[in-house]
Write a structure and sequence with these properties.
heterodimer; A: Ubiquitin-like (UB roll); Alpha-Beta Plaits; Rossmann fold; 3 domains; five-stranded mixed sheet; 24% helix; 18% strand; elongated; B: alpha+beta; four-stranded mixed sheet
Chain lengths: 528, 179
């Protein structure tokens, strides 16, 4: 392990660590554009120059490995002058259109200019013009004039997705990022090039011009798009609702996790939040009698659900939970099943189409919490429940979110089963063909509107935080189930997700000893 | 940059530059063997990209996008990376070129010695602008940077030949002599 000194501070780092990372461990930032810890070293931007005591010239820190006895200086007058000069080069042909650039506020040209630039521009010639507002694919927009040719996006497509769509074409000050003519940036991870673009050259077609980034609020969360459980940040726009047309979730961004998703997320997960602010959201409880639809208060809906459940014998009631529900909700479902005395509980509804999977992040199981539902003992036979419902043996079914009419099951048989139910209860975030048939519809809070945990396919329990208030009267499922349980006379002390988690951790060996605090921001593996 | 009478790394072309591109972009078995030989010369086989692209240009007349894709497949590279190389170098033609390429130097020495008159004479004689090809496909006109023959400025490179100490008269005769 080499021991070196950076700005007078000694540090020991693992062999192979470069000077940027070694300095980072000491809290010293070496400014850089092209270096990214997830990609190969390009040495292209030349901004990370530092002085070494035994080198005649400043050296790039990204491509210099820490060595024993090395003395690094990141803040000499020569280094500062070098940074100013490199920044001046980077800005020679930059359009300086920050007032209309979507990257403003999170742009490393802006940040480093304020820290390391602040010179009088000496450029008197006309700037070189290049293509602007070029869609590269469904998600990414290119402004070649803003590009500083760091090649991070090119390396991402070469090294991470292996798709190689992007290149740097032409040369000198005519060099520009682009696609092979006729090709599109359609790989399943294309949104990541926007994240790693240090400037405003690559922007997000969905996000751009929606909201200035300094109006965003941030919450740590977990992607719900598949069983991987990628760590994300939810960026919400709450301060200027008059600009957002009801859209509250502005974007999802990956959050680094060394063992789950590193720096990346897939496009399906990144753009999988539209349902949260969609017009189809369920926002108040509903009772349906024939064609008549009555809007209810929770104080009416909860007793109505409890009454309906009381009307049936225990073995006439089935609960179809969902692997999209959080562990806390699933534990509440299990408590409800125990209170009702029914063993007819299941959560697996086979999807109509098989999910894609790859070696990077994407899992074929498009549910965030299948593993949790298995561990919490809800793995019954959903097909048998539907068959018994159709045969009349089950008279009351509570469906949590599933659209069973668009699953792998024959839709006609599923439809017949649902219409046979004397009592069909649906809870979920959005209206569907199932909610349209339900006698009681209960609006559930979306994952960004509440706390909870999910267990990924590897058995890692991870927390997601509340980013927004629930829309309308929607409630987290654990809360609405808890209210039903209380109305049924069960002793329920849990009112928050954390209480439900404490209860399940006390009861299920796989979760033994876990708390929200111990799960923290990196998650915790279930006991084998 | 080619400065001598002819590049030495090219394989014998199977077609003269300027001939219409063959219908299918594909190398002969002999050429493919040559590709493999060239690739074996370098620690990373992509080192052979330049000579193989020249081979493609000599064979197909110019390096079309289709040719780039074909060459990429021979190197297991993405077409975008072959396009990077082709757009970087000025000696690769992405559009069909004329049977002859007249490249007039307009760098410092030639400029001082009257290169602009030479270029103007070429444009007038041929009826095309710099970067264009005559309608009959006979001549492509280029203005290029220094070709290292300043002592004979103004000068031009006509196909693989240097033409030195040019005058409008001399260049007129030259152009007339190109079939």
């Amino acid at each position: 392990m080499p021991r070196l000194t950076i700005d007078g501070k000694p540090i020991e780092v693992p062999a192979g660590t470069n000077i940027i990372e070694a300095a980072r461990l000491l809290g010293i930032e070496v400014p850089h554009y092209c270096y990214h810890p997830g990609l190969s070293i390009a040495g292209q931007c030349r901004l990370c120059m530092v002085d070494l005591d035994n080198a005649p010239r400043p050296t790039i820190a990204c491509n210099t490995q820490a060595a024993d006895g090395m003395v690094v200086m990141t803040d000499t007058e020569r280094v500062r002058e070098t940074r100013r000069s490199i920044m001046e080069f980077h800005l020679i042909n930059h359009p300086l259109d920050c007032p209309v650039c979507d990257q403003a506020g999170e742009c490393w040209l802006q940040i480093y200019y304020m820290k390391h630039g602040l010179y009088d521009p000496r450029m008197v010639d006309d700037k070189v013009h290049k293509p602007k507002a070029v869609p590269l694919g469904p998600h990414v927009m290119l402004d070649a004039e803003r590009c500083i040719l760091c090649s991070r996006c090119v390396r991402f497509c070469d090294e991470i997705t292996g798709t190689g769509e992007l290149g740097i074409f032409h040369r000198g000050d005519h060099s520009e990022i682009g696609l092979f003519p006729g090709a599109d940036l359609t790989n399943k991870y294309s949104g990541n090039v926007v994240d790693i673009c240090p400037v405003g050259a690559l922007t997000d077609r969905d996000f751009r011009f929606q909201v200035r980034v300094w109006y965003l609020d941030t919450a740590r969360s977990i992607c719900q798009g598949c069983a991987r459980g990628c760590n994300i940040e939810v960026h919400t726009s709450r301060r200027r609702p008059h600009h957002a047309q009801g859209r509250r979730v502005a974007r999802l961004k990956p959050r680094y996790h060394a063992e789950v998703n590193r720096w990346w997320i897939c496009d399906e997960g990144r753009y999988g939040f539209a349902f949260v602010d969609d017009a189809s959201r369920l926002t108040f409880p509903v009772r349906r009698e024939g064609q008549a639809v009555h809007e209810l208060l929770w104080d009416e809906a909860i007793p109505a659900v409890a009454d309906a459940l009381r009307r049936h014998q225990p073995d006439e009631i089935a609960l179809l939970a969902s692997p999209k529900m959080a562990n806390e909700d699933l534990w509440a479902v299990r408590a409800l099943a125990e209170r009702l005395g029914t063993a007819r509980v299941a959560f697996r509804v086979p999807p109509a189409a098989g999910g894609d999977q790859d070696d990077l992040l994407i899992r074929a199981d498009k549910n965030p919490n299948t593993r949790g539902a298995e561990l919490l003992g809800l793995d019954g036979d959903a097909a048998a429940i539907m068959a018994d419902l159709r045969a009349g043996a089950i008279k009351c079914l509570w469906i949590f979110g599933h659209d069973v009419l668009h699953a792998a099951w024959p839709p006609a048989e599923a439809f017949e089963a649902l219409t046979r139910a004397q009592t069909l209860i649906f809870s979920g975030t959005n209206a569907s063909s199932v909610s349209a048939l339900a006698h009681l519809v209960l609006p559930a809070a979306a994952w960004v509107e509440r706390e909870g945990t999910v267990t990924n396919f590897e058995g890692r329990v991870q927390r997601f935080r509340r980013a927004l208030d629930p829309l309308g009267a929607a409630l987290p499922e654990h809360e609405l189930i808890g209210r039903v349980l209380a109305t049924l006379g069960a002793p329920v002390s849990a009112t928050r997700a954390e209480h439900w988690f404490r209860a399940l951790a006390a009861a299920v060996p796989a979760f033994a000893g876990m708390t929200y605090a111990s799960i923290g921001d990196t998650g915790q593996m279930v006991s084998p | 940059m080619t400065t001598g009478p002819g590049p030495t790394h090219r394989t014998p072309p199977t077609a003269q530059a300027g001939r219409a591109a063959p219908a299918t972009i594909i190398f002969s078995p002999e050429q493919l063997a040559e590709v493999r030989r060239l690739q074996s010369l370098y620690p990373d086989k992509r080192g052979a990209l330049l000579p193989v692209l020249h081979m493609a240009q000599d064979t197909f007349g110019h390096v079309s996008l289709e040719a780039e894709t074909y060459v990429a497949s021979l190197f297991a590279l993405s077409p975008a990376h072959v396009h990077e190389v082709v757009t970087f170098y000025t000696l690769f033609f992405q559009q069909p070129k004329g049977r002859h390429v007249v490249a007039v130097c307009h760098n410092l020495s030639c400029h001082l010695a009257g290169a602009q008159r030479i270029i103007a004479h070429c444009k007038e004689t041929l009826g095309i602008d710099v970067g264009e090809t005559t309608a009959d496909g006979r001549i492509t006109l280029q203005a290029v940077e220094c070709l290292c023959a300043c002592e004979h400025a103004p000068m031009a490179q006509v196909d693989d030949r240097y033409e030195l100490d040019l005058t409008p008269d001399k260049v007129g005769r030259l152009l007339a002599g190109l079939a």
